[in-house]
Amino acid sequence: MPKQPRWTVTADGKRPLAALVADLGKHGFVVREVLGEIGCVIGDATPAAVRRLRKLDGVADIAPDAPIDLGDPDRVTW
Questions:
Q1: What are the C-alpha distances in Å from 36 to residues 18, 24, 70?
Q2: Global pTM?
Q3: Domain range spanning residue 49?
């Protein structure tokens, strides 16, 4: 089975984040990390599952997760 894409779910703040996380898991989202301070959940799901997850109560947005590379900390860039 191919690896599922990684996504970032942004909560709308209208319901408890824990309830949203539980619903995401029930609907095919594999939760990897919960960033409670900023209302985001990172995890894996198929694109078909994401189409369904976007309709869940409490979801503001779901976007593909992108890697961030800050580079070598010893390299001066400016």
A1: 9, 15, 23
A2: 0.83
A3: 6-19+32-58
